Amino acid sequence: MQKKKISITVIRRLPKYYRKLEDLERIKISRVSSQELSDLTGFTASQIRQDLNNFGGFGLQGYGYNVKELKSNLGEILGLNSVHNTCIVGAGNLGSAIANFKGFEDAGFKIVAILDSDKDIIGKKISGIKVESSDNMEKLIKDKDIEIAVLTVSKKNAQDVAEELEEAGIKSIWNLTTADLDVSENVIVEDVSLKDSLFTLSYFMREKHN
Amino acid sequence: MQKKKISITVIRRLPKYYRKLEDLERIKISRVSSQELSDLTGFTASQIRQDLNNFGGFGLQGYGYNVKELKSNLGEILGLNSVHNTCIVGAGNLGSAIANFKGFEDAGFKIVAILDSDKDIIGKKISGIKVESSDNMEKLIKDKDIEIAVLTVSKKNAQDVAEELEEAGIKSIWNLTTADLDVSENVIVEDVSLKDSLFTLSYFMREKHN
């Protein structure tokens, strides 16, 4: 497989291809054309061929793509065959929702710890995992070999907690707060940006109904 | 203000500008250059000028942008001055997290109802709002003039519930499930795609640490 710099917009389309291939595999479809993938994803067929070409292309003209093979290749590109130990920081409603979120395991994220600073929550169990005190963050991250933190604390605490996580040696933060985190380049931050998504919805409503 | 077709990638940058302008206004900064906006947002200064030009541009060379004015203009573009009555469908952890999510009011989304089909949850209060039975969906949407549904049901129920919502006259769905919804063009769907975001994080971890 070639290794070259791929644009972020291409990267962000890959998960959707992967999910659609999962669906196809589930219903025992073994072969798919770029046109069929287009119908499923909403991206154009030429866009899809171009995207997949970035990774050496896996299709054959007149045949299309082998579903199982393409899914396996995309899974490898997306790093889904590795397992990453993960902690959730912030055991409120959002943290609890994430702890129960089934998509985690599929993506290779294994929740091994849940942290909170609230004494009333520490010691309770969420999705079978006991909530531990944030004071033990560094020790937990080292002992349990945790690579990823899911950040679900309040906006006002987000930056401080992100810095603590970096000091504790975390490699990646999945940021579900509305704060823009300022951490060093050593830490990968993936923002979910619920608020930006809402603002975007608001834009489209105004566009459509005005 | 000009009205022309703006690309979705531009639209998706607008919320970040808006949030940064909110922050600047909060600390009483009245003027900002595209270079300063670049430092705050991570987009290039020329990108920013180009983006804002799409909307008639609001900057003056050598002066930059008036924070209050630009924020107000972007807020108008994003439709943030209108209030949309909103219901949450699915009162589990994720639905509860959303009901308590502060970003909602800022974006002009007013939660006026929470629906669930589970008898054990119906009648309970979440964030001060009583959970009602999904059986009353159509009546509630009409009586309370609800435009938007936040979908937080399970993946397997998502499509059915989306169809019910469309029949009940909903205009927009903020989709927090991992299902890709198939509804008519009359309904605006904004996907949050937690799973795609996780897959993307997985990609970057593989890229960086391999």
Q: What features would you describe in this structure?
A:
The structure is a homodimer of 210-residue chains. Chain A has 210 residues and is of the alpha/beta class. The first copy, chain A, folds into 2 domains: 8-77, Winged helix-like DNA-binding domain superfamily/Winged helix DNA-binding domain (Arc Repressor Mutant, subunit A), CATH 1.10.10.10; 84-196, 3-Layer(aba) Sandwich (Rossmann fold), CATH 3.40.50.720. Helix content of chain A is 44%, strand content 19%. The longest helix of chain A has 16 residues, at 194-209. The mean pLDDT of chain A is 90. Chains A and B meet through helix 2, helix 6, helix 7 and helix 10 of A and helix 2, helix 6, helix 7 and helix 10 of B.
Nearest-integer average pLDDT of chain A? 90
CATH architecture field of the largest domain in chain A:
3-Layer(aba) Sandwich
> Which chains have the largest interface?
A-B, 57 and 57 residues
- State the helicity of chain A in percent bands: 40-55%
Which structural class fits the helix and strand makeup of chain A?
Answer: alpha/beta
CATH superfamily descriptor of the largest domain in chain A = NAD(P)-binding Rossmann-like Domain
Q: Strand share of the residues of chain A?
A: 15-25%
Count of discrete structural domains of chain A: 2
Top CATH class of the largest domain in chain A: Alpha Beta
